[in-house]
Design a protein that fits this description.
It is globular, with a radius of gyration of 22 Å. It starts with a helix and ends in a 5-residue tail after the last strand. With 282 residues, the protein is mostly helical. The chain is built from 10 helices and 2 strands, in the order H-E-H-H-H-H-H-H-H-H-H-E. The protein has one domain. It has a two-stranded antiparallel sheet.
């Protein structure tokens, strides 16, 4: 049986089969689905970005970022208002932030499935293995340190505040290069792992990292770290980009046949009561 046949084969089960029950179906997939590691990574990505939104936007309220033109008194007041949210929210990040590695791993896997050189996947993997430090963790550590001891010198707390948001918003060069690597790999690929339009969406994401660079210079205006371009426009593009790449990774998993040639088209899903997938879907 060919790998393409394996990817789309479906097992017919009797209507009263225990494997139709949700938990039994999950256990069956865990034991038999050849794509279980891919699906585990994909669901971890979905869970991570939901956690990221809840923690950064709702619990800590570190996003949208504080104002870069605040004086030390206003910064101290901000830390006082956000104190409990910062400590509890970032504790969740310190505990579960490693889930971001699943995204890097699955994207690197997608590039290994392409017809391009493995250097693309390894470059992306190494770069994004380090990217969580400027892209998330440094802000979390800095704001936690500022909230942990509110009796510090206000000027020192102000410096911690600046360090947190400059590191989060203004050090995005690593993401620019990563987006370009993924874009070039898609454009050169002959295995049809991703559609070509997605390569240009990577370019759009890369350009947002260019316009955000002046956030290290300006305290006010559209290029400050909370400006209409540096944050608001970039966040819209990033939201669209994130939703797109999560959807494209899911489609890739559905199409994966564990071969080396072009990916087959995704098999149409049957009615929910007709079959249990043998590997083509989770």
């Amino acid at each position: 049986m060919s790998s393409a046949q394996i990817a789309v084969e479906r097992i017919e089960l009797p209507a009263d089969s225990p494997a139709r029950r949700p938990l039994a179906k999950l256990a069956w997939h865990w034991r038999n689905n050849p794509k279980r590691e891919l699906w585990l990574a994909w669901y971890a990505i979905v869970a991570f970005y939901q956690m990221f939104f809840i923690v950064f936007f709702l619990i800590t309220r570190a996003q949208p970022p504080g104002k870069p033109w605040w004086n030390s008194t206003q910064v101290v007041q901000w830390f006082d208002q956000m104190h409990n949210g910062l400590l509890w929210g970032f504790a969740v990040i310190f505990l579960l932030g490693g889930m971001s590695a699943f995204s890097t791993a699955l994207i690197a896997y997608s590039m290994r499935r392409m017809s391009v050189s493995p250097a693309f996947a390894y470059s992306y993997l190494i770069m994004y293995s380090l990217a969580a430090v400027p892209g998330m963790l440094l802000l979390c550590v800095a704001l936690t340190a500022g909230a942990l001891r509110p009796d510090r010198d206000p000027e020192l707390i102000h410096a911690i505040f600046d360090l947190a948001f400059v590191s989060f918003v203004g050090t995005m060069g690593v993401f620019l290069i990563g987006s370009v690597i993924w874009m070039v790999a898609i454009l050169l690929d002959k295995n049809r792992v991703f559609p070509k339009w997605f390569a240009y969406l990577n370019l759009c994401n890369a350009l947002t990292e260019v316009v955000i660079a002046p956030a290290c210079i300006f305290k006010r205006g559209v290029f400050s770290w909370n400006g209409q371009i540096s944050w608001w426009l970039d966040m819209v593009v990033f939201g669209i980009y994130t939703g797109a790449f999560i959807g494209q990774l899911r489609t890739m998993i559905l199409r994966e046949d564990f071969g080396t040639g072009p990916l087959p088209d995704a098999a149409p899903r049957p009615a929910a009561d007709a079959a249990v997938p043998a590997g083509a879907a989770a």
